[in-house]
Design a protein that fits this description.
The complex is a heterodimer of chains A (402) and B (131). By secondary structure, chain A is of the alpha+beta class. Helices cover 23% and strands 29% of the residues of chain A. Chain A has 10 helices and 17 strands. Chain A is globular and about 70 Å long. Chain B is of the alpha+beta class and 131 residues long. Chain B is built from 2 helices and 8 strands, in the order αβαβββββββ. In chain B, strands 4-3-2-1-8-7-6-5 form an 8-stranded antiparallel sheet. Classes of the chains: A alpha+beta (402), B alpha+beta (131). The interface between A and B is large, with 50 and 41 residues.
Amino acid sequence: MNARVLMLGAVLLAAPLAVAPAQDGDLDDRLVALTYHKVTGKPLDLNAAAEQSDVVRRASTFDRPDVLTAESARLGQELAAVDPRREFVVKVTDNISEYDHAKGEFSVMLFKPGVYVTANAFGKAYQIVFDNAESARAIAMAKEEARTFDARLNQSSRAVVDEIHFRVVGNGDPAGAVTGPLVVRATITSARVLDRGGAVLHTPTLSASTTASAPGSAPAAPAFDVAKADVAGLRVGVKSKDLEATLSRLFGKVARVQRSNGWYAGYTAALEVNSMGCMTIPGRNRGGQPGNVCITAYLDGDDVVRSVRVERVFPFLDGETFRSTLVRRYGVVSAANEGGGYTMGWGPEVDQGLVYDRSGPHTALTASYATEEDMMSSALNSAPRIRITLQLVDAGWAAAKK
Amino acid sequence: MAHLQPLQRITALLLCAAAACGGGGSADAPAAAPSRSGDVWELDSIDDRARTKAALLAFVSGTHVLLVDGNDTYAGMRLTSGGKAPDGGQPLVLGGGIEATLAPSGDAMQLRFASGETLPMRKRVSGGSAR
């Protein structure tokens, strides 16, 4: 019997934490993990995985190398034989929100952005997110009906069990809220919300399409198209004189900078506006102030813009506002990463040397969220300012240069 | 009601297509902002935390700083031409399905997103620049 715990992506920690206790389930964690590797093509370190197996752990020191080799080979065969279209079933203890009188609905907490189910396999935690969860989130009903439903929920402290049938379809959270090295993207094929006695409380009507925007927000953007993409209205693939004219008019003085060490090999010059104005630097009065805008555009030898980065400093805004707004603008997220800050990516992968935040994701378009604090704001314990950075790389040009 | 002659009808249809029938016209091709003409409008109340979410939406859609030159409005290199309503409001053509209208509001302007958020815009004084 496997424990199923709902977890919340770190970017959403400002929101109420939704953690449910263990519940029965017949989910085969190993098979989910193997299917994930099969579907995504992400390599599974067979030796490392085999080392976690009981048979290897129990082997004597003398026999261990042979047992490890055999177990590794067996795992490889198991991986090769996995059916990528296999359907899984999991039961998860969950709870239902209070009634939202404005929207006329309850929410199933598991299906909110940033919540995932953990599968443990090969000594690692795989985070399962459902790409059509938003379509299962709301339990809409009129107020009179809701009053009765609410009373029924209160009898069990609002606890329910979600029975979810799903398929593994890819890698990463399309909503960008769950980050990590092993994020399993799954699609719910059917689901039921049960009470503790097993009676059906609600059967969601599922959408096949991905819905990555936050509850209550506008529909997510159409599929991301790198050829038509812009960052804050700024484009790549244009002549530098056109961008320079626009920047000069909209943002002020533009400086042309010649190539320096450490730049990507294809760049020969850059256009800069207020280049250091979005960072908090001790002793500098106007660095990192809300409203500051900073732009850097890199040019190739033909004086064509091949990358543009635009930053703006804001008063404090939370990570979920950042996530939902960017998903609304650019659609389904290709990859996301949390380290010093929080970065989401869209479009094809590009060379690491082209990306402003080297920790990734290394995609044609990235959006980053970072805090800006100085000694004064830290001492006063005030909310930090937030620096949002958007970067667009001409992925077609970069691919041709390889 | 006056009826259009065939030639007038064709001309009207072409004009309507060019202006995207009231929604403002915009090609996908990027456009450079004019060097002198027009006025630059930028977000007002930049320290107002209540408007931060809308300000972020304005930033990512390129509408945090706009150049208005007659019937042309530039959000970065994204140009909207025409489509102004009688009250002066202009629906802007933006990327990613975000819809907004730039509308006069007294002596200033207001950016109104279709999703309900509104932001005051102030005219930048001559010679000013973004910080």
